[in-house]
Amino acid sequence: DANCSVTLASDSSGTATFSPASPLTIAYGSSSASFTYTDTKAGNPTITAASSPLTSATQVETVYTGTTSASQSALTASPTSVTADGSTTSTIMVTLEDAYGNPVAGNAVSLTMTSGTGTPTITTIAGTTDANGHGSWTVKSTTAGVAVFTALDSSDNITVTQTATVTFVHCAAG
Fold it and tell me: What is the pTM for the complete model shown?
């Protein structure tokens, strides 16, 4: 003749939230309670509901990645300085992440030069982000100068805030 208290837990490595907060109270005579689960980590966490002396119940949920965050995502160049000989390349890589740092996979990405000198050749290595949220290109130029590149996630129509800069230098004759 008493209410039942049920403790909810998640094995997620993110920030898991139950609403209403755990423990839940199931009124005497009722056989269930409803709650909402939110999580910052994409994946398949196991939710456990426990109430002594009853056997615990578990359920696997799917938490999906959110849309790309322009400020959370990154764009890097390596190396940042290459010879302007038309064949030496720098690799530019974008890492798309959602607002919680989860990689955004399967999105179409493109790279453009937004400022600088010359017209560097941009060659796509991976125009769709992989499981780690990575897309990549190589760039090369015959014109010396500084070039600034920007990445666009065309799937979510988001321009990555961070830019990548490559300096193309003339090689001194030896």
Answer: 0.80
Inform me whether the pLDDT recorded for 104 exceeds 60. Answer: yes
Residues 1-40, buried b or exposed e (16+ Cβ, 10 A)? eeebebebbbebebebebeeebebeeeeeeeeeeeebebb
The predicted-structure confidence for 164-173, as pLDDT tens digits, reads as follows 999 999 976 5
Percent of the chain with pLDDT over 70: 98
| Strand ranges in 4-141 using DSSP code E only, listed in sequence order | 4-10, 16-19, 24-26, 36-39, 46-50, 57-60, 74-78, 81-83, 90-95, 109-116, 121-126, 134-140
CA 8 to CA 36: how far, in whole Å? 11
pLDDT at 174 over 60: no
Q: How far apart are the first and last CA of the chain?
A: 93
**How does DSSP classify residue 51?**
-
Residue with tokens 């560097």: 120
Cα–Cα–Cα angle for 147, 152, 154, rounded to 5 degrees? 155
- CB–CB of 91/75 below 8 Å? no
The strand pairing partners of 153, in sequence order, are 109, 158
- Bond into 20 cis (ω within 30): yes
